[in-house]
């Protein structure tokens, strides 16, 4: 009886493997494709643009600061693989005025053709204790990290649906998979992208459009260098659970997953565990991915509980330390 059940399971798995090429998306061809990268003038966005350019794509870079855009354009052009390739720069704040964002993306499409891939990388972070963060921080981060991605995606989706092809990438964060001390303003903006991505993916899949959510860990970028200046001690200590990644490496993984149309894009072994743990009701792109989630979820939850225990003890130790130093300050 048991043998029969096992045989059935094996048969089903084999069958699923056989049909899996039918449900996996066809990879996007980057040579000659038009790739738009918001936040493309610095850090992860810049490396994503370079990676796509190296593979023959035409690039539109979007950010606010014009001189940074031009400098990055020059840097990217060093990697050209043919003499037709173009890097277009657009200076716009993706979080301000939807009409404006829609307009500049229309102009970009007139110049370089319809957008094949949009990478929403424009974003910023502020850390601090909940009550120390000004309300304007919560509003600004939601506007840039979340609404900025909504605006840019909203402007390109109609053409993608008409052409029945395309890729949309949202750059979330590991802090968009779990909430940590110091990230009360930032984490919700990154969790929001996941909700948007899931709902949007269900809408656009019949049009052969694939959505990817990337969850990078701490990554060595100008934005990260700015962030650590004001990070609470607790956040620093908790973040030491993972090592700092290089932007080039993060970009390579994001571009590979976007080309393949994978919903999940993660980096490193803790990124792998977090992605399995938080897979919830997210779509799967391969049978192997689904099987790994089913098999590993429980054990990763146990490992996760140990991590949570150690994070709680960091927070408690810091609190006791702070109270001690405050009371000695008072007695002085
Ligand atoms: N570095 C890290 O540790 C991690 C980063 N991430 C996420 O990756 C993304 C990139 O981060 P990172 O490379 O570190 O950031 P950087 O600060 O190095 O670069 C941010 C880019 O976004 C642009 N940008 C910022 N605000 C706006 C805006 N309102 N409108 C248009 N462009 C804007 C910036 O240009 P300009 O200022 O000129 O507008 C710049 O090009 C962010 O979404 C971040 O949350 C996720 C996980 C880890
Ligand atoms: C079972 C597995 C458990 C794994 C636990 C992993 C611990 C995660 C620590 C996460 C550090 C936060 C990264 C935020 C990066 C970011 O978005 C900012 N740097 C942006 O500037």
How would you describe the overall organization of this protein?
This protein has helices at 2-23, 43-54, 66-77, 98-112, 135-163, 187-204, 222-228, 233-239, 247-260, 268-277, 287-331, and strands at residues 34-38, 58-63, 87-91, 117-120, 166-171, 209-215, 219-220, 245-246, 264-266. It is globular, with a radius of gyration of 22 Å. It is built from eleven helices and nine strands. Helix 4 packs parallel to helix 5 (135-163), helix 5 runs parallel beside helix 6 and helix 8 (233-239) packs antiparallel against helix 11 (287-331). It is of the alpha/beta class. Helix 6 (187-204) links the parallel strand 5 (166-171) and strand 6 (209-215). The strands form two sheets. The chain has a seven-stranded parallel beta sheet, with helices on both faces. A two-stranded parallel sheet has the order 7-8. NADPH dihydro-nicotinamide-adenine-dinucleotide phosphate is lined by residues 38-39, 41-45, 63-65, 68, 93-95, 121-125, 144-145, 148, 171, 173, 216, 218-219, 221-224. NADPH dihydro-nicotinamide-adenine-dinucleotide phosphate (NDP) binds next to helix 2, helix 5 and helix 7. One of its GO terms (molecular function) is 3-dehydrosphinganine reductase activity. One of its GO terms (biological process) is sphingolipid biosynthetic process.
């Amino acid at each position: 009886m048991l043998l029969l059940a096992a045989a059935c399971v094996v048969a089903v798995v084999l069958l699923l493997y056989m049909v899996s090429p039918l449900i996996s998306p066809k990879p996007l061809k980057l040579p000659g494709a038009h790739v738009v990268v918001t936040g493309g003038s610095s850090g992860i966005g810049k490396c994503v643009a370079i990676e796509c350019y190296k593979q023959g794509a035409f690039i539109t870079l979007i950010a606010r600061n014009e001189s940074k855009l031009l400098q990055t354009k020059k840097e990217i052009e060093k990697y050209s693989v043919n003499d037709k390739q173009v890097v277009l720069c657009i200076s716009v704040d993706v979080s301000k005025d939807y009409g404006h964002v829609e307009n500049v993306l229309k102009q970009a499409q007139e110049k370089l053709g319809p957008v094949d891939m949009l990478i929403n990388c424009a974003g910023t972070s502020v850390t601090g204790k909940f009550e120390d963060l000004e309300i304007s921080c919560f509003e600004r981060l939601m506007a840039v990290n979340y609404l900025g991605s909504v605006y840019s995606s909203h402007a390109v989706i109609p053409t993608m649906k008409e052409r029945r092809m395309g890729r949309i990438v949202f750059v979330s964060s590991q802090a968009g998979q779990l909430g940590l001390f110091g990230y009360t303003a930032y984490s919700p903006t990154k969790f929001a992208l996941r909700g948007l991505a899931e709902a949007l993916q269900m809408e656009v899949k019949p049009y052969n459009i694939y959505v990817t959510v990337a969850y990078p860990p701490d990554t060595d970028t100008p934005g990260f260098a700015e962030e650590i200046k004001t990070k609470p001690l607790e956040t620093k200590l908790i973040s030491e659970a993972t090592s700092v990644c290089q932007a080039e490496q993060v970009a390579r993984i994001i571009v590979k997953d976007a080309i393949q149309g994978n919903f999940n894009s993660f980096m490193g072994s803790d990124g792998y565990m977090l992605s399995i743990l938080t897979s919830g009701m997210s779509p799967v792109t391969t049978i192997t991915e689904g099987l790994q989630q089913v098999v590993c979820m429980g054990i990763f939850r146990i490992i996760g509980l140990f991590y949570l225990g150690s994070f709680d003890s960091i927070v408690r130790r810091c609190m006791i330390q702070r109270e001690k130093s405050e009371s000695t300050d008072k007695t002085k």
